[in-house]
Amino acid sequence: MPTVAPFDLEGHCIAAAFIDNIPFFALADGMVHWLDHGQKSVKLHDGLLSATTSAGNDLLITGGEDGKVMSLGSSGTAQELASAGKKWVTAVASGPQGAVAYASGRNAWVRFADGKTKEFVHPRSVEGVAFSPKGMRIGIARYNGATLHFPAAEGKPVELEWAGAHTGITFSPDGAFLVTTMQENALHGWKLVDGKHMRMTGYPAKVKSLSWSAKGKWLASSGAPAAIVWPFSGKDGPMGKAPLELGTRGNSMVTSVCCHPSEDIVAIGYDDGMVMAVRFADSKEVLLRRPGKGAITAMAWDKDERRLAFGSATGDCGVIDIAG
């Protein structure tokens, strides 16, 4: 039976992560807390808006209302990586070779490991940034589509058009597909080799959480009473195929999804604080945590694949040991 070690904090949890296998929780008030032989805390920002982990999971990368992009290591050492002045840094992403992307207003930047930055200006505000798993390339979610840039090279960006507001962005692990979350209750995707469109609709609520399965054959999403899991194993992705619906609960909404690092299993967080693990192959469910005080907003697996950190909209956080 899984065991839950609760970690009660105050405020909205933006990100849960394992940094050097230590559980970290980044809150909207700018505080970051972690559990390493007792509770430790540091104030990184005046209001934290976005957070991610570095490629090697050895740093937490954050962006805030104070215009700063910060990194935090497991020892508690914080470093300012960049600043957007007085503008809010609304999105951050980490990429290959120590590169970091961040966005504020209509601008996006890539900061290389040597500290140099490259700026990209867009006609409308940048809502999300992501690095491609192949090569030095970033994707930008914007109004009416997405834009692809090659920060290390000169040349025109690639424009992918689709009407509507695109709010978040992710590449498939093999780099073949690009998927955006939308302001309407839908996902949109492109097959990058030929620009073919993929429409993923029918959600009752906005999709705020996406997670690729270990080998990239599945994309799990929130925004419904079940985790909606789209098949990406074929050359055309989910087109013409029905998604899996895992962990269905009629009176609750899925608010967070986090695929297991090596197996086709997804951790599902709900709006009542419950967390469940479900296997793709046979929909077998395991209850990981009973309902709590707030909607699950963030989850992350550790590198040993046995612990799951979670955070909620009310600061109701913790670590689940699935081995008990």
Give the topology.
Elements: E1 3-8, E2 13-19, E3 22-27, E4 31-35, E5 39-43, E6 48-53, E7 59-64, E8 68-73, E9 78-83, E10 91-94, E11 100-104, E12 107-111, E13 117-121, E14 128-131, E15 138-149, E16 158-171, E17 177-182, E18 187-191, E19 196-200, E20 210-212, E21 218-221, E22 227-231, E23 244-246, E24 254-259, E25 265-270, E26 275-279, E27 285-289, E28 296-301, E29 307-312, E30 316-321
Antiparallel strand pairs: 1-30, 2-3, 3-4, 4-5, 6-7, 7-8, 8-9, 10-11, 11-12, 12-13, 14-15, 15-16, 16-17, 17-18, 18-19, 20-21, 21-22, 22-23, 24-25, 25-26, 26-27, 28-29, 29-30
What is the gist of this entry?
The protein is mainly beta and 324 residues long.
Describe the protein.
The model has no long low-confidence stretch (mean pLDDT 96). This protein has strands at 3-8, 13-19, 22-27, 31-35, 39-43, 48-53, 59-64, 68-73, 78-83, 91-94, 100-104, 107-111, 117-121, 128-131, 138-149, 158-171, 177-182, 187-191, 196-200, 210-212, 218-221, 227-231, 244-246, 254-259, 265-270, 275-279, 285-289, 296-301, 307-312, 316-321. It is 0% helix and 53% strand. The chain starts with a strand and ends with a strand. The chain is built from no helices and 30 strands. The chain has 324 residues and is mainly β. A hairpin with a 4-residue loop joins strand 8 (68-73) and strand 9. The strands form 7 sheets. The protein has a 6-stranded antiparallel beta sheet, with no helix packed on it. Keywords: Repeat, WD repeat. It comes from Aminobacter aganoensis.
